[in-house]
Amino acid sequence: MTNSVDAGRVSQLTAATAYTPRERRFVLIFAVVGALIESMELNLLSFPMSDLAQSFGVTNQQVVAAITAQSLASIVGGFLFGWIADRFGRKPSYILFTASYSIAAIIGSTLSDFDTFVVTRVIAGVAMGGAFGVLFAMFAESWKSRKRGFMGSVLQAMFIAGQLLTQIILFTTISTLGSDAGWRIGFAVIGVGCLAIAVAAYFWLPESKLWQASRTMPHGHGVDPGPTAETDDLRGKRLAWGAVFLTICTTGVFAASYSYITFAPTFLRQTLGLSLGVSTVVLTIGTLLGIGSYIVFGALSDRVGRRRSTMYACLVGVAGFGAFALGSNGSVTVGVIALAGTAIGYAGFGVLGTWISEFYPTRFRALGSNATYYVARGLGSGLYPLFALTLAGGDLRFALALGGIGAALGLIGCLFVPDTAGRTITAQ
After folding, report:
1. I want to staple 122 with a disulfide (CB 3.0 to 4.6 A). Which of 73, 197, 223, 312 is the partner?
2. What predicted TM-score, i.e. pTM, was given to this entire model?
3. What percent of the chain has pLDDT over 70?
């Protein structure tokens, strides 16, 4: 009888009731910072692509292949660190993956052999695979549902804000110290900063209370929370098919985003002939536009639902990449303006982070979220840019414009995923 009562109490524990305001703030701070530094690590190869190619004596295509290897490695890391987070806790997984990719960046900054450098990026890719599922599990299991879409978009925006920080740091070090020394010092600075966050998390990051509660519940036990959202009874085939289409949608948005992230910096410097300084300003404006688009569609998802908001965002992406394809072949000024359309072409990420974390139950939220996110990232950010560049015959403008295919795929995939707006997150 006592065990039944205790299990009932545990099953009624929710994200809205489990934490004190102070604990919730710490969880949110570490989630935001974790997203920021994971993005900084992830984009270490894109901004200084030409500098890396020159230092190691390789082609841009070989650097893109290294980005592909890093992204594919994150699939392995997604399953590994998702399992660690669901088995041993969100906190140890957070500390482990943050420290691992930080150390890989520091070691990579000292290397002169490209093949060995690629190995460090593969190791970093495995570690990066832990970030999304753990960060959004921490967030979903501690934040109230009413404005979860808006706050989730702020958290997701940190993944793009990290790109901005990477650009600022590497621009500063490269312009001050020169191409070779600049990217190396930039790598080391970012790696040391990320390692400091891992140490801080050891002391101050609270463990997820809903995860702890879920570990005390017999499998399948719990109180039915009632039909408060479309997915409160998500299970079996409905869960499986929803996961498939959610992965397809996320793959498409990744393909759109990495068409921009991978090719825009080099398109500006090589195709349009802009200086490093001017290119950095243009990319900074694009990053700010991207952050704004995330927050707009994330907040909208609290009003119209996750599915409809993602659909609108993907329509914007199709239009943005289409405008670039049609308008970027003119003057430099027109090319820069047209690039703005691609900078907001992956606004669906403003919704997807929250949608994915709400979709899976607590007992395997980190693993399920990571599986969706990193399979999608491996395909969309790993294979797709290499495919696009090959299809374009090395033409960076054409390769970037092909991101519109990704936005269209995201649009199709989102139509078949159950909406989760308003779902109550419990220990189940």
Report:
1. 73
2. 0.82
3. 92
